[in-house]
Specification:
The structure holds 2 protein chains of 2 kinds. By secondary structure, chain A is an all-beta fold. Chain A is built from no helices and 11 strands. In chain A, the strands form 2 sheets. In chain A, strands 2, 4, 5, 6, 9, 10 and 11 form a 7-stranded mixed beta sheet that branches. In chain A, strands 1-3-8-7 form a 4-stranded antiparallel beta sheet, with no helix packed on it. Chain A is globular, with a radius of gyration of 13 Å. The relative contact order of chain A is 0.33. Chain B is mainly beta. Chain B is built from no helices and 12 strands. In chain B, the strands form 3 sheets. In chain B, strands 2, 5, 6, 10, 11 and 12 form a 6-stranded mixed beta sheet that branches. In chain B, a hairpin with a 5-residue loop joins β5 and β6 (44-50). Chain B starts with a strand and ends with a strand. Classes of the chains: A mainly beta, B mainly beta. Chain A binds chain B through residues 4, 31, 33, 35, 40-45, 48, 50-51, 56, 58-59, 90, 92, 94-107, and chain B through 4, 9, 32, 34, 36, 41-46, 49, 51, 90, 92, 94-97, 99-109.
């Protein structure tokens, strides 16, 4: 009954360090997403993967890369972290069709010093 | 491009009173609309969704929402709120690009405070 699992839950990085956020879903969903949440901004789409083997940019992709490792896993990488990337990151998954609701993980709270 | 506006950043309601949270959207075609709730330190939970058909949709926890195309609105309502309803509420619109799910566009959220 796990749903969408994100690791780690918390992380502090120094400017310039790299890091990969992990996400895995056990609902056999085709589509997966990465969002960031900043105070007063709602959630903004970073990247998404409509199906295994494809990835596309969302609203705020700069400074990030993603990998759809297999159907279950979708990782987000910060190559050179910047303070502006301090945020809460959410992974979500859904069925492929547009009318399928997204299921969210509990988030990764990332601070860049 | 689609957009979502939630005009109220904060709303305070007394326990047992009725609630309406406003949501206005901008989208060129038939919108696919969602309301999510987020408790502190948690992820987002789906309350309800609208795709087509009946414009009044029922969700979990006693919530409902009404789609009004003429007003480009999808307001969330609850007849009687409970202290456990205190949370952040997000309205979102989904796009339909070739039938696939491209990701949601969220409003900035409404923070609901419940007074005893």
């Amino acid at each position: 009954n796990a749903g969408v699992t994100q690791t780690p839950k918390f992380q502090v990085l120094k400017t310039g360090q790299s890091m990969t956020l992990q996400c895995a879903q056990d609902m056999n969903h085709n589509s997966m997403y990465w969002y960031r949440q900043d105070p007063g901004m709602g959630l903004r789409l970073i990247y998404y993967s409509a199906s295994e083997g494809t990835t596309d940019k969302g609203e705020v992709p700069n400074g990030y890369n993603v990998s759809r490792l297999n159907k279950r896993e979708f990782s987000l990488r910060l190559e050179s972290a910047a303070p502006s990337q301090t945020s809460v990151y959410f992974c979500a998954s859904s069925g492929w069709r547009y009318n399928q609701p997204q299921h969210f993980g509990d988030g990764t709270r990332l601070s860049i010093l | 491009a689609q957009s979502v506006t939630q005009p109220d950043i904060h709303i305070t309601v007394s326990e047992g009173a009725s609630l309406e949270l406003r949501c206005n959207y901008s989208y060129g075609a038939t919108p696919y609309l969602f309301w999510y709730v987020q408790s502190p330190g948690q992820g987002l939970q789906l309350l309800l969704k609208y795709f087509s058909g009946d414009t009044l949709v029922q969700g979990i926890k006693g919530f409902e929402a009404e789609f009004k195309r003429s007003q480009s609105s999808f307001n969330l309502r609850k007849p009687s709120v409970h202290w456990s309803d205190a949370a952040e509420y997000f309205c979102a619109v989904g796009s339909n690009s070739g039938g696939g799910a491209d990701g949601l566009t969220f409003g900035k959220g409404t923070h609901l405070i419940i007074q005893p």
